[in-house]
Amino acid sequence: MFGAKKLALVIAVFTLIAWSFRPQPLYALKNQYYDFGPYYNQPQILGFSFSSLENLPVPKIPDNLVPPKSSGLLPGSPFYPLERVTENIQIAFTFDPVKREELRLGFASERMSEAKTLMEEGKTEAASLAFDDYRDIFQEVTQNLSGLTEKNNPGFQVLADKVEEVAAAQVVVAQTLSLSSPPVQAEGWNSVSQTAQRVLDEIAEVRGEPPLPADLSGSIQKLKEQGLISEEESNKLYSLDSRSGVREELDKLASSGQFPASELIKLDTAVAKSYPDVHQTMTANLQVAEIKVYQTLPQPSDKILEEIEKWQTNPLTPPPNDIKPYLWYNRAQDLAKEVDLSNFAPDQQSQLTKLYPQAVVSNPTYIPPPSPSPTSSAI
């Protein structure tokens, strides 16, 4: 007897006749960004430009996560619809709802491999089709996962763990590739990261996890104390009842320079749990990028710093207008003291000492440049 895949292939061959002579459309990458993308060409205070992330350490993708080179039919080929029809038939003949979604997860991973292969070949427009299919597949998985929860399907927990595992891994891959790719390709990888993060948000919600993770909640309180977000903005964030709602609101604030991306990344709790080293490197990159922006701003005078310190003794009162443009200064100092500089080159570390020498030198991960060797005196 034919296996499910062989049967699907036979049926798909007949279906291909209806497709093979149709012209294939060209797909341009959509302007979808996440984490790094919203900062293109916008004035920022807590945000930054994409160029701020250039030449920063790129995390190493764990070997078991690197998408393999795709050797099958690829988007852009007139025969590519055959592969999609074959997959749809496999899904149609898979009656176990959990196994059906696991099958879709495998297809999503294939789209990642196809996109990476096409990107490496310089076929950006064709890769965009794989990105679009990836997004559509994961949207369907997410919807069906919620349905399994409502039906109290006993396989829900197993499937939720699997979806979380795959989505967290693909956030790591996509964010890493976005850092090592030219902007037009980074745009596509950011869309993958955005899709996978939304899936992780949905998983957190169906598991009953709090909309605001504890670390992020602490950051919001500190930003409020520093005058960097308002009481109204803070209250709105705490009023949201879903992780996806929090991300949507923080994306808006971050894209307008009102919330730092190095704090927003704390929403990715599943990534931090499964890939702590990669997550820490990404966080450090965002923190250093933020510090680099602060270095370009007019620095506060001693008098302004005294006024900021005085205001912070009673932060419940609105900050005076003359100190508002400089409220970021204490955050810049804190970041310079706390950012993990372990993966940064000596010259990159030295650059951070130009405006914040005391803060950077007190950072336990800072490595000072070697002292110059004394010149031997001529005898």
Give an overview of the whole structure.
With 379 residues, the chain is mainly alpha-helical. The chain has a domain at 4-209. The radius of gyration is 24 Å and the shape is globular. It starts with a helix and ends in an 18-residue tail after the last helix. Helix 5 packs antiparallel against helix 6. The chain has 16 helices and no strands.
What's this model, at a glance?
This protein has 379 residues and is mainly α.
Tell me the helix content: 55-70%
**Chain oligomer state:** single chain
Helix-strand makeup class: mainly alpha
Average pLDDT figure: 83
User: Main sheet, how many strands, which sense, barrel?
Assistant: none
Tally of alpha and pi helices: 16
What fraction strand? under 5%
Order of helices and strands: HHHHHHHHHHHHHHHH
Low-confidence stretches: 4-44
How many β-strands, per DSSP? 0
Gyration radius from CA atoms, angstroms? 24 Å
Outline:
globular
Kindly, what is the distance between the CA atoms of the first and last residues, rounded to a whole number of angstroms? 93 Å
How do the strands and helices of this protein lay out in sequence?
Elements: H1 4-16, H2 80-92, H3 97-120, H4 124-150, H5 156-179, H6 183-206, H7 214-225, H8 231-239, H9 243-255, H10 261-264, H11 269-274, H12 276-295, H13 302-312, H14 329-338, H15 346-352, H16 357-361
Helix pairs in contact: 1-2, 2-3, 3-4, 3-5, 4-5, 4-6, 5-6, 12-14
